[in-house]
Amino acid sequence: MAWLEAHDRFYPDRFPAPVVGIASTLGDHDSGLHRHQRGQLLYTRQGCTRITLAQQLCLLPPSRAAWIPGGVTHRAVMQQSVDYRSIYLTPELCRELPQQVCVIEVSPLLRAVLEPMAIADFGTDWQQGKFVHLLGLCLSEIREAAQQPMLLPLPRDKRLAPLLATPEQLPPELQVLEQQIGASSRTIGRIFQRETGMSYQQWRQQWRLMRAMELLATGRNLGYCAFELGFASDSAFIAFFKSMTGSTPGTWLR
């Protein structure tokens, strides 16, 4: 395994082993756009990671893992302190795994399996002993894991580029967006429905939910979250969060 520091560059495709694992705790780290032929399972043990794809924004809060198939260009941004584990699997091992990027719930079994896999020596023989069983359990857990709605589709229309340039900022109300890009609400609605499958309001609400989870996972309090996300009060923010997830922010964090 490799314990990565913030300045290290890691190239999983240069290793011959079928499984390569890394472990790290990074703060305010930006991987930059990159891709590799191996499939990657990125598990956030503590903190929150934002993954940017070509036409999607992916949020990875604690206890969740992102499955990134081989060949997918992506960028991982880690805020504050993020403790994570990653394993990289050869294309042969990925044939029965999801073919699209997804965020999965990490079961206690998958969590227990990932730790010894992530810290295993690069020269490990994955075809015998306990390691063949660990690998089999890992592949099975990835296949059967419940997927989480942590992916936000991004519109491709060039008029909306300023909206996507600052993903940390609350998207404006529809009337304000009309003035900013010089398009009617009907035109904006058609763009979002065609390119994201959502209305603009639905898309904005999903953005708010993902940003709320990101803020909560990085230690922001309710008052800060409510203000940043444009809610008039803490109680309004709590009601929104519960309507979207079925639980309060405090319950979700626990």
Automatic annotation (TrEMBL):
Keyword Transcription regulation appears in the UniProt entry: yes
Which SUPFAM superfamilies does its entry note? Homeodomain-like, RmlC-like cupins
Whether Transcription regulation counts among this entry's keywords is yes
Question: CDD domains of this UniProt entry?
Answer: cupin_NimR-like_N
Q: Which InterPro entries match?
A: AraC-bd, Homeodomain-like_sf, HTH_AraC, RmlC_Cupin_sf
PANTHER family assigned: HTH-TYPE TRANSCRIPTIONAL REGULATOR NIMR, TRANSCRIPTIONAL REGULATOR-RELATED
Tell me what this protein is called: AraC family transcriptional regulator
